[in-house]
Design a protein that fits this description.
Six copies of one chain form a homohexamer. By secondary structure, chain A is α+β, with helices and mostly antiparallel strands. Chain A is built from four helices and five strands, in the order βαβαβααββ. In chain A, strand 4 and strand 5 form a beta hairpin.
Chain lengths: ~140, ~140, ~140, ~140, ~140, ~140
Amino acid sequence: MSVTVSRKAHFNAAHRLYRPDWDDAANEEVFGKCANPYYHGHNYDLIVHVTGTIDPTTGYVVDMKVLKDLIKSEIEDAFDHKNLNEQVPEFKNLIPTAENIVVVIWDKLRPHIDSDKKLAVTLYETPRNYVHYEG
Amino acid sequence: MSVTVSRKAHFNAAHRLYRPDWDDAANEEVFGKCANPYYHGHNYDLIVHVTGTIDPTTGYVVDMKVLKDLIKSEIEDAFDHKNLNEQVPEFKNLIPTAENIVVVIWDKLRPHIDSDKKLAVTLYETPRNYVHYEG
Amino acid sequence: MSVTVSRKAHFNAAHRLYRPDWDDAANEEVFGKCANPYYHGHNYDLIVHVTGTIDPTTGYVVDMKVLKDLIKSEIEDAFDHKNLNEQVPEFKNLIPTAENIVVVIWDKLRPHIDSDKKLAVTLYETPRNYVHYEG
Amino acid sequence: MSVTVSRKAHFNAAHRLYRPDWDDAANEEVFGKCANPYYHGHNYDLIVHVTGTIDPTTGYVVDMKVLKDLIKSEIEDAFDHKNLNEQVPEFKNLIPTAENIVVVIWDKLRPHIDSDKKLAVTLYETPRNYVHYEG
Amino acid sequence: MSVTVSRKAHFNAAHRLYRPDWDDAANEEVFGKCANPYYHGHNYDLIVHVTGTIDPTTGYVVDMKVLKDLIKSEIEDAFDHKNLNEQVPEFKNLIPTAENIVVVIWDKLRPHIDSDKKLAVTLYETPRNYVHYEG
Amino acid sequence: MSVTVSRKAHFNAAHRLYRPDWDDAANEEVFGKCANPYYHGHNYDLIVHVTGTIDPTTGYVVDMKVLKDLIKSEIEDAFDHKNLNEQVPEFKNLIPTAENIVVVIWDKLRPHIDSDKKLAVTLYETPRNYVHYEG
């Protein structure tokens, strides 16, 4: 009896999309307005999904309070009100597209989730654009 | 050509999370504020998903009106404005966590859905916490 | 230059609507399913609106962090995961309808908001039912 | 490392559900109010999901701007502010149920998505009714 | 102590915007895609607001169940799954713009609301366009 | 017969809250995480409200297409994917708090709205924080 438990969280951050090995024209052509050297930003909405069997003692797949605290300590504290390019080490050499951010978040959370449980992460960059990664 | 049809519904209910075989301190430690002996409550949002092939005569996988009425008679009439612990028989000996509720809902609906169709249920306990069960 | 600043919060609670001086039939007739003696519950969504002039030094009408903490200490800590009838003193002799709750919330917040600022409160009992009070 | 990228769009359209080979009574019995000969309509919300590996050069699975423009040219321009029965050729001999519409949308988009990427489409007919098709 | 009580409802309808005393080019110029002679449609979301004093006996400004039933009988039954131009008498000689619809709804509800209470109506034509009328 | 017409739009931007005449400690004390010198960002949701009488010829208070284009040319083109502090002249000497942004937006739109119509602007900095200005 496998159930997926999902918890929403959010953080606000600045970023820009560009490759330092490309000139401005090349960056602008590929990344458009997202290449703005002065940065822009988003309210990121994050959903963390954990799939596993229900513990018959507690009725929980995972304690939501524990999951909420894990998301706060691993993701919100690291990303919220930050400049992803300048202040989050994972993006020092990685373009902070939504696709790359969702993989980074999954990689940061995976070691903290029991190995017999499945982890998936959904990340909304805007209410109209979102990505999903299952590992 | 398999399509999933989803229908949203909702019910409001009271519940508490606790084990009668544990003392108050143990319940409080595991279930926190959710163990409050005077109950608390939620607006539960429910999404029922039915997957099957499209009937070429009607263009339907399932008639949404029939699905809506089924959710009402089987789930809303049984759960809405109720105390899950005290008034819903399925939770007499089962802790009404979101995980257990979503399995109970799936079990109640499954006999009413054609056996060649797949059933899944998503249950929002709050806009930030939800669970999903596919049987 | 008067601007209104609004902050959302939420709490989950159980309640029932009934008058102890009426018999069950009278309560059922007026309050319907809401009179259920075993209680039911809601995810209440709360929006607190403060209207005033912008402080030219900070650009704030009110510091959102201060407003967020005030809502937490005065309302969320008092109401969240509680039974409004049994555990919130303001409803000992007051029916916890959405209308009465929103007035109680306004009365609890008003002394903490500068007297030259206007306060209004919106309370969602469900996504379909809400109330608004401006004092 | 397979990531799903999702983009929301929307269009408004009129439709009716009926079979010309049935009489009015038969159409009314099966399709109810949806058989109204004068049509009714919806704000359709559309989510297009593309799954593939992240391009290490751009950090993209697919360029969202390209996906947005594709949805506009193939779907929004063809369906928005149209009568699906009368003005969209795909429904000349196909009942425009949500199930059939989502398959038509998938079929229209599939040739424009790289063959090594997976395509799925979700279509909300109302905020309470939606369908999903993965091909 | 004046409180506003708000109740949401919805209906789906087809309409077109045009003046029969104008030719097609003039209609197209003013109303654009909305003039399509084959109609298009919307999921209209409706919020009805009633402002008055709280009845100390019930704690209600207005009984939400009564308000819900009133919206159903006066508005939803008349407008849902209808063609506003062809099947709703109020629009026989009135262009069914959102502005005109919201006034028609207000006029239909006003006689059923106590004269000492204030009525306002909000109508969403799409999630991005809405209108509000207070009489 | 005065009706309010509301149109939603959105833009993504980076900003920081700080006073150049204060040192870092003072900025941090007042503006907290929002003072981050590397900026952070938001998906701003904007609602523009225009109140006036219905034109009996068109049934419009204002043509939504015209209003949509006005918001795009005056606000979205100026603010979207920009750093408000560095790239939007209005904030050269004005802290880009939500309160100041909403006043700037109102001031930019007001000359383009007929003088006999009332203008109001609502700005969501996050789904939990928003401001409203009526001039």
